[in-house]
From TrEMBL:
Transmembrane segments: 6-32
Protein name: FAD-dependent monooxygenase
PROSITE patterns attached to this UniProt entry: UBIH (PS01304)
GO molecular function: monooxygenase activity
UniProt xrefs under Gene3D superfamilies: FAD/NAD(P)-binding domain (3.50.50.60)
Source lineage: Bacteria, Pseudomonadati, Pseudomonadota, Gammaproteobacteria, Chromatiales
Amino acid sequence: MQNVDITIVGAGSAGLTLALLLAPLGLDIVVLEQGSAPSVSKVNHQRVSALNLASQRLLSHLGAWPAIAATAQAYSHMQVWDADSFARIEFDAASERLAQLGWICDNEQIRLALYQQLKVHSNVRCEFNCTINSLQQSERDVLVNINQQQILLSRLLVGADGVNSHVRRATQLPLTHWDYEQQALVASVKTSQPHLATARQVFLPSGPLALLPLPESNMCSIVWSCTTERAAQLLALPEQEFNQALTAASNSVLGVLQLQTKPSAFELKMRYASSWLCGRVVLVADAAHSIHPLAGQGMNLGLMDVAALAELISAAVAENKDFSEARLLRRYERWRKAEAQTLIGVMEVFKRGFSNKQPLLKLVRAVGMSSMNQLPWLKSKIIAAALGNTGDLPKLAQPQAKTRDLA
């Protein structure tokens, strides 16, 4: 039996970021992961995330950003349009006096960079290829049985184990969910025209298609959200016919598109835990919420969760208070629930608004987007929120945040 201060279940980007944020506090921390450890390998950009400025500031503080940026592609322009109307809106970094609007990053490279930084902290131990056999808790601690032989007793356990969270199920935290009745097709494609560091998204009747720029000037990552039926049809096509369908869906905005990797399909569901707390167990990131990828905010939302939790734990440790007390954890839950609920609501409005085929509603959204594109002050407010420059952000993610230790 081993006693630790904090157990983090899940060594994805959220779990590793939380461990790295808490490491300077001197707490005894264990990270449990059912998969393997991140390893140096060829970057394939099969699964990518769009990181905004708030996430970049946080990861820079942790020292992980240079390694992430080395394989990422910054984008300085965004173009969004509706295939079924004249609706269109564009954003560019120069108008906001910025060098870039965000970065398209390989998910595994984010994990690898965080893990490399974490390995220098002797008070943090990572257990990979780990199976949790049982999870129980008392008023004083949480007991975890792993690999049928090792017992961990923790003052606090954090579930950072993704959308199908074992921690959430084991603690029977209630879950609200609905099926978007869509799948996301993900792949890397070669373009016949350069992407010009521009992130593009077109709203099609069956769902949005995103073309995300990669480091090579003629390579993009696609996230094609479409109905389950349409996804099955596309996956069954020969490669040449898939390329033709993809090029047509993009309106040939980057010329002819050609698959470079085999498309992968992922079901799209909204999940939201109505309670993120159960005694000394707390949920973060995708274990607590998952949203539609149409705005690319899922990773950013999760990173802000762990930054907020780390900020509150840090303050408690500095004041020699119990970092696992219910009052502190409820503060975290209220703080981040408000942000998650807002984003889930916005995504649902966008998803429903652009999938509606009624002529009057199509006209309304077209006029609305086109009018918005002509109002610089409104565009600035929208892009500032998307970039993580506004809102109730954790201190390390705020604009002009100064690098400092959490302790």
